[in-house]
Design brief:
The complex is a heterodimer of chains A (325) and B (436). Chain A is mainly alpha-helical and 325 residues long. Chain A has 14 helices and two strands; from the N terminus they run ααββαααααααααααα. Chain A has helices at residues 10-14, 23-64, 86-92, 95-128, 134-146, 149-160, 166-173, 186-211, 215-223, 228-239, 241-256, 260-265, 278-288, 292-324, and strands at residues 66-69, 79-82. The longest helix of chain A has 42 residues, at 23-64. The two termini of chain A are 41 Å apart. Chain B has helices at residues 5-19, 46-56, 74-84, 98-103, 116-121, 124-129, 152-157, 166-179, 194-204, 223-237, 249-257, 269-276, 316-328, 330-337, 352-358, 369-377, 390-405, 411-428; strands at residues 35-41, 60-66, 90-94, 131-132, 135-136, 139-140, 146-151, 187-189, 209-212, 215-218, 242-244, 262-266, 284-288, 305-309, 433-435. Helix content of chain B is 43%, strand content 14%. In chain B, β9 and β10 (215-218) form a beta hairpin. The termini of chain B are far apart. Chain B folds into two domains: 5-143 and 304-365, D-Maltodextrin-Binding Protein, domain 2; 146-301 and 389-435, D-Maltodextrin-Binding Protein, domain 2, CATH 3.40.190.10. In chain B, the strands form five sheets. Chain B has a five-stranded mixed β-sheet with strand order 2-1-3-14-6. In chain B, strands 12-7-13 form a three-stranded antiparallel β-sheet. Chain B is an alpha/beta fold and 436 residues long. Classes of the chains: A mainly alpha (325), B alpha/beta (436). The interface between A and B is large, with 67 and 60 residues.
């Protein structure tokens, strides 16, 4: 580890010749060490990237262009052949895939703003010093994130299920009927689970960014007569814009891959069908329908959409950044 | 939240990669000695049958593995094993799923291998359901004409006639509800009701799947289907049937308490009722299924299984010999019945006396239920065909029926949705499909 040579040493090469006895040897040794270090440091990441991302993506793209092919009625088994874009056409003409797209889009529209604004508000509150026991509050808010997603979903499902849920029972005593798993409530119920586990995590990111703010800026704001709210909204938030952007993007990517919560709720309510989200569609195509070509095509489409949206968000934010300057 | 979605996807991709590698080892012969066959089945009594076979045969020995039933993972297990090339020699499959597996190339074409002596003994309607495009892919084990199991004591007590037609069924349903406001005549099954709905439509003359030449013709909302779904929708809307999943705890509890006073199901249901609701002894009876036109009685089936020889099998002839024994021999049937109560109606009619003799019908007050099944089995409409992707069609239909049961959408919507969710799959497989 001590052999790490930072790029700062590059300066030596371009600078005037050092007084050392054999500059060439030093330079060569340095360069070799540098290469070694780069390789050593990048190797684990690259290996993982290749093994768990690039290879599976390549495999999925390959699979998506091949499919079982049958003639006519299809009996007696088919052959796996190159079918070009057929799986893509089938996916895009599948109403259940498009419906999955719709529910994920709606989920994104509700979830992403809610989690970003909610986490930001909590972080600003903590940072403002208005809240006592800041560490305890922080920990309590972060705690849900430590609960694995599937467990969180089980807990919430328990709270949502009529006949089991103490919450529903409580409301019933006040003569209010609540159906958390109804046609129009099921998506908000899913958002709620995701918010519960996501808020604390994102709040920590924002809080860390806020802690790094230059104190003199805040002091200047105070001297200029800005109150707590104005400082928060007009000074603090713009400065931590890059964190906000990052959280936006991560939340969006996570939201597009919505799977665990609805998959579990699929067992509990007919309002969540087995192809409710894009990922559930992929799962269903691969493991219930054994149609790997279809599943791969849907995966590739999801990947493209995710990349495109991430790129769009970055571009959009970049342009706003420039125009803000 | 970040990082939570990604592992799910990665896990999925890895499972995808690994999916082909699971399943148990295949079977291969030792250099000499008996041929060893592997056999998978979720059916009760299979172990007893295999034991009997191994005891009485030396040339072929069978290794049996109890597998989960289809919707509990049995279908996935079999297709994964077939993809990996280590499917068992003999596997069990139900009628609706057979065409899909035949398209995937899991069963072997046994058209020429199946001895005529065996084929002749099996009911032609059953053979039709395992024969596609004039090729036979499996041997029927049982065929299950749909019947009406009902609480005779309640019907007598309230002077309700046993319905012969569907119109009478509806009026009986109203009478029962009037007499006992907490009771309903039967259940509309929701989260697993598509196959029941299929049987009602089958009886009414619907043809969800048909072939014309080399093309699949699909119509899950043809005129008979619309008639049947409108009928059930009315029973549902008027609160004349109980809405619950088949085989669920609550459904069994309602059968036990008499709050649900009937069950429309295949002949096998009689045995299932005896085993699961022993307290109903002497209270239940079985009637023919109500008809749309009593002058032209016709029926669909509900349930029933078949045995296939897989393409992977190295011993197709021996496998078929074993299957023939299981399906046609009285010894096999006796061994199977020794495991407990079963009222499955054998696909080989000349075995009915054996099944009848083994069955103690005191539960149904001594009613000759096999005599009834025998008559009803003759009414099975031979024109019905199952489709190429029933596993997913059924689960889509079940989703829709569950919503219809909860008041969102209709029974017909559920079937239409099942069709529209199935078509892309078929097209991506290159099948030739039309809807009408």
């Amino acid at each position: 580890m001590s052999t790490v040579i930072t790029p700062g040493k590059r300066g030596k090469r371009t600078g005037t010749a050092p007084p050392a006895a054999s500059p060439v040897r030093t330079r060569r040794a340095g360069r070799r060490q540098q290469t070694l270090a780069t390789v050593a440091l990048l190797a684990p990441f690259t290996a993982l990237l290749v093994a768990v991302f690039l290879v599976p993506v390549g495999y999925a793209i390959g699979l998506s262009f091949f499919s079982e092919d049958h003639d006519g009625l299809g009996f007696g088994g088919g052959e796996t052949v190159f079918t070009g874009l057929r799986s893509y056409i089938a996916v895009l003409s599948d109403p259940s895939f498009l419906a999955g797209f719709g529910s994920v889009a709606l989920y994104c529209v509700i979830f992403v703003p809610a989690v970003v604004i909610g986490a930001l508000a909590l972080a600003l509150l903590l940072d403002s010093g208005l809240i006592r026991l800041r560490r305890t509050a922080q920990m309590l808010l972060y705690l849900p994130h430590a609960v694995p997603g599937i467990i969180a979903a089980v807990i919430w499902l328990y709270l949502y299920t009529p006949g089991l849920s103490p919450v529903i029972k409580l409301f019933a005593q006040a003569d209010i009927t609540i159906d958390f798993l109804g046609l129009h409530t099921v998506l908000p119920s899913i958002v709620n689970i995701a918010l519960w586990s996501g808020l604390g995590y994102n709040m920590v990111i924002f809080y860390a960014a806020l802690q790094a703010l230059p104190r003199e800026v805040l002091e200047a704001a105070r001297i200029d007569g800005a109150g707590g709210v104005r400082t928060a909204l007009l000074v603090k938030v713009p400065i931590i814009r890059s964190s906000v952007l990052m959280v936006c993007m991560f939340s969006l990517i996570a939201a597009l891959q919505l799977f665990t919560e609805p998959m579990l709720m699929n067992q509990a309510t007919p309002m969540v069908n087995s192809r409710f989200t894009l990922n559930m569609y992929i799962y269903d195509a691969a493991f219930r329908r054994n149609n790997y070509g279809l599943a791969s095509a849907a995966s590739v489409i999801l990947l493209i959409v995710t990349c495109a949206l991430s790129y769009a968000v970055t571009r959009w934010a970049g342009r706003r950044d420039r125009s803000a300057r | 939240m970040p990082g939570r979605g990604r592992p799910a996807v990665l896990l999925m991709i890895f499972t995808l990669l690994l999916a082909g590698c699971t399943a148990s080892s295949g079977s291969d012969t030792a250099e000499s000695g008996p041929v060893r066959l592997s056999f998978w089945s979720p059916l009760r009594g299979s172990q007893e049958m295999v034991d009997e076979y191994n005891r009485t045969h030396t040339k072929i020995q069978v290794d049996f593995e109890q597998v989960p039933s289809g919707d509990q993972g049995g279908w996935a297990k079999l297709s994964n094993a077939a993809r990996a090339g280590n499917a068992p020699d003999v596997a069990t499959i139900e009628y609706p799923q057979l065409p899909g597996f035949a398209i995937d190339g899991v069963p072997r074409d046994i058209t020429t291998l199946l001895p005529e002596s065996v084929r002749r003994r099996i009911m032609p309607q059953a053979m039709d359901l395992t024969t596609f495009d004039e090729r036979t892919y499996a041997v029927p084990v049982d065929i299950e004409p749909m019947v009406f199991l009902y609480r005779k004591d309640l019907f007598t007590e309230h002077d309700i006639p046993v319905p012969k037609t569907w119109a009478e069924f509806e009026s009986s349903a109203r009478k029962l509800k009037e007499a006992q406001p907490r009771s309903r005549i039967a259940s509309l099954f929701t989260t697993n009701g598509t196959l029941y709905m299929a049987s009602y439509c089958w009886q009414a003359g619907a043809r969800w799947y048909d072939t014309s030449g080399e093309t699949w013709r699909i119509s899950m909302d043809d005129a008979p289907t619309r008639k049947v779904t409108a009928y059930w929708q009315r029973l549902l809307d008027d609160d004349l049937v109980r809405v619950e999943p088949a085989s669920s705890q609550q459904w069994r509890a309602h059968l036990q308490s008499g709050e649900t006073a009937g069950w429309l199901a295949g002949a096998w249901a009689a045995g299932s009722m005896m085993a699961s609701t022993p307290g109903g002894k002497g209270k239940w009876a079985i009637a023919p299924l109500p008809q749309w036109d009593p002058k032209k009685p016709v029926l669909g089936t509900q349930g029933g299984s078949t045995f296939m020889v897989t393409k992977d099998s190295n011993h197709p002839e021996e496998a078929l010999e074993f299957i023939s024994w299981m399906v046609t021999s009285a010894d096999a049937l006796r061994a199977k019945l020794s495991s407990g109560i079963s009222s499955a109606y054998p696909s080989v009619p000349d075995l009915v006396p054996v099944a009848r003799k083994e069955m103690d019908t005191s539960y149904f007050s001594g009613q000759d239920i096999f005599g009834l099944f025998e008559k009803e089995a003759e009414l099975i409409d031979p024109r019905w065909k199952w489709g190429p992707r029933m596993v997913s069609t059924i689960s889509s239909g079940d989703d829709g029926l569950a919503r219809a049961g909860a008041g969102s959408g209709t029974v017909l919507d559920a079937l239409r949705e099942a069709q529209s969710k199935t078509l892309p799959d078929l097209k991506s497989l290159g099948l030739s499909v039309t809807t009408h």
